[in-house]
Amino acid sequence: MPSLKDKEKNQEDMNKKQRHTLARIVIAIILTVALQFLNLGGWLMLSLYLMVYLIIGYDILIKAWRGILNGRVFDENFLMTVATMGAFALAIYEKSGDYLEAIAVMLFYQVGEFFQSYAVGKSRRNIAALMDIRPDYANIYENGGIVKVDPDDVETGSTIVVQPGEKIPIDGIVLSGESSLNTSALTGESLPREVAKGDEVISGSVNLSGVLEIRTTKEFGDSTVSKILELVEDSASRKSKSETFIAKFARIYTPAVCYGALALALLPPVFMMIFKGAPFDFSTFETWIYRALVFLVISCPCALVVSIPLSFFAGIGGASREGILVKGANILETLSKVKTVVFDKTGTLTRGVFEVNAFHDNDDKDLDERKAVILEYAAIAESPSSHPIAKSLLRAYGRKIDRSRLSDVKEYSGHGVTAVIDGRQVAAGNEKLMRRLGIEPCHCHSAGTIVHIAIDNKYAGHIVLGDVVKPTSAAAINDLHRSGVTETVMLTGDTAKVAEETAGKLGIDKVFSQLLPADKVKILEDILQEKRNCGKVAFAGDGINDAPVLTRADIGIAMGAIGSDAAIEAADVVLMDDDPLKIGKAIRISRKCLRIVWENIVMAIGIKGICLILSIFGIVNMWLAIFADVGVMILAVLNAIRAMYVKRI
After folding, report:
1. Res 3 pLDDT > 60
2. Catalytic residue at 344?
């Protein structure tokens, strides 16, 4: 990854180049206007115009010459050089003294190049500002004070201090302090996130209020901020099919129009001399050479070569601002064709956090008067365990556990626990544990994880635990259907009952349950085969066991904020705030980007094609040729920048 100093130097070099080009344009315009008021003629006027020509076009001439020496003859620099030098030659031959067209072609070409450079630079600066999350330093305690060090020098397990207004440099866990964090640069979420002791924090967030002491859990190179910057920087190197096509098209198109211009300059005059008796002198060729020069100016492929990559770059930048990291232009292009979205359930559509949903007795009736006792005994019995179910029960109980009340704890792997609480024998677990203890459990018809409770060897009731559905999941499924996705599918390891209930709540079209990781890959293979002629298939998941499925799908979408490193590495798209609602937005951003790309292709080829045909018949002069080249390029660049603005898409 380039250092901050390298990036600043590159940006300063770009700014200097733009200022230099602008100065040359201004000087050339002033001198050109001044020459219109001077009543000079002959070689003196030619010399002054040549001086202006060299001021505005010397770099184009150098590039054209280097291209010839390196065997890359046919490019826009060669086209501009031939067209302008030919215009000078015609003016000299005609002794008209009208060298303005040659100057105008080079001048307006440079204006277009400057505008394009400024637009690309501006879009890069906008993206850099939006993604300016790389911290410059980390604060550590040293010799009784706080010292600023390079984040790369901070080891895992170190304690760092983050003051108000500073960026969190490395992922970690809050040791002390409370604060609000601005995570908008990472997730696109404008609301601040409240953190306190024990909370995980990710690098790139901005500390808004209190002082935080954080124990680092990763090295800087593996932290969230580094991964994001690597993804954004690497995305530029992954070309889309459209970009690859345009690059190949330009390699064929440019030589073709050069030979076409040569044919236009030679074949009609030769035909006229052979069949119509035109004189064999330069006057016969003059008109056609001029038309060939106009043809060359019109044919310059800058609008396509510049605007197509810029459109994808702007689209990736706009998505990044919304907390959607797309790993390349090729991914953005494929994403626009998604018609089927397959979801993992836990951690993707749900929070992956169990919550107490209900309490029941033998008659399956609510236990309003006894549920507090059941929950209390279950929480105390499960308190020594680190299992997610135990943590959920403790969270639901919500009070500090008095361990002095607890004794004789026995854990039965895969079944539950037994313990003595306040001198009473308590068992908490599944139906297998109850039957093992000779207690007949009450079968529960509710969907979810069931924890049965027995007190003093008598069945007391059961607690229903359910995974919490994310608040935006139902809206996300509806949004996908409105965005043109024809089918949504859910894959889960949960029981069929739980899976069907969740799918019904969310409006998912098809569900597969009780799956192992290998089963998910097989089912996805079947879906890919079934949908091979019906658009692309995307898979959204978060866990390490989802990595094989993310890799196999046409588009893998990872939940980045809590997703595993393996899932993020395997995915093509990373959602930084784990919001499934962003999937529909990502698809719409990609479609907007592709729409802009095709608008530019049709506009550029359409206008140029019409003008090229008209130039053959002499209807288009050099001034209109300049518009067909520079004007179309400016319009295409302006249109491309629209891909960056996706806030309200």
Report:
1. no
2. yes
